[in-house]
Amino acid sequence: MTSSGLSIFNDLEFGAVVRELDTPNVDGWEFFTESHGVKIYRLYNETSGLYEYKVYGTLDDCPPDVCAEVYLDLEYRKIWDSYVSELYEREANGMKVIYWDVAYPFPMSHRDYVYKREYKEIEHNGHKVYAVMAKSVECSDIPEKSGVIRVDDYKQSCVLTTDGKVGSKAYMRYYDNPKGMIPAWLINWGAKTGVPSFLTMMQKACRGYPEYKAKKRTTS
C-alpha cells in the first residue's frame, strides 16, 4: 500500500528508515536524552545552528496498525493535538500536499508548513512495517499568509512495527527550521521535552481512536 500522486521518496530511502528499527544507525550522532523508554539522538546542522533528531522507543499498548492510522488521520489529529490551528490535504501544483498551521505559544507567531507525505506498508523480517516519510515542498498554489511564518525546511519520517507483544516499536527522524526570532537554544530545549510529550499524546490518541471511529460512523 502506498500513497497516491507523484513520488518524491524512492525505495532505497524507505528501506533505510525501515532498517533503523532493527539496527539503529547513530554513527556521528550525539546521544541526547532518554525519557520513558524513549531514546533521542541528535546531529548538529552547521548551517542553521539547529539539530536533527532520531527517536527510538515503544508505545506499549498501541498496536502498530492503529498507531499508523492515527498518525495518518488528519481529521483526528485536529482533535488530539492542541497545537494544530489548521490542517488539511489537497491537490496543489499537480500533486497532493498537506497544509499544516501550527499554533506556537504566545507571543510567537504561528508557523505553517506545506509538505508531501508518502506512506508504505512493507514486509520486513517477517513482520509488517508501517512507514511514513514527509518533507516540505514549494507550492505556489498555497501562498504564505500574513502574520504566519512559512517553514520551508522540514522533514520527518515515522516507522512502526510490532514490539512482539501488544504494542509498537517506533522510530522517528525529525528536522525543521522554524525561522524567526527564536533562539536556537530554545528550539533545541523544546525538542527535548516536545518529542516525548508528542509520543505520550499519540499513545493517548491511539487508545481513544476506536471510540472516535465509532462516533464518526454513527454521525456520518
The total of beta strands comes to 10
Distance between the termini: 26 Å
Order of helices and strands: HEEEHHEEEEEEEH
Largest sheet, in brief, is: 10 strands, mixed
Structural description of this entry:
Helix 2 (64-72) crosses helix 4 (184-219). The mean pLDDT is 91. This protein is of the alpha+beta class. It has 4 helices and 10 strands. Strand 1 and strand 2 form a beta hairpin. Strands 1, 2, 3, 4, 5, 6, 7, 8, 9 and 10 form a 10-stranded mixed sheet that branches. It is globular, with a radius of gyration of 17 Å.
Give a quick summary of the entry:
With 220 residues, the chain is α+β, with helices and mostly antiparallel strands. The protein contains four helices and ten strands, in the order H-E-E-E-H-H-E-E-E-E-E-E-E-H. The protein has helices at residues 11-19, 64-72, 74-80, 184-219; strands at 30-35, 38-45, 50-59, 84-92, 95-102, 110-124, 127-136, 148-151, 154-162, 168-176.
Give the topology.
Blueprint (H helix, E strand, L loop, with lengths): L10 H9 L10 E6 L2 E8 L4 E10 L4 H9 L1 H7 L3 E9 L2 E8 L7 E15 L2 E10 L11 E4 L2 E9 L5 E9 L7 H36 L1
Helix pairs in contact: 2-4
Can you give keywords for this protein?
alpha+beta; single chain
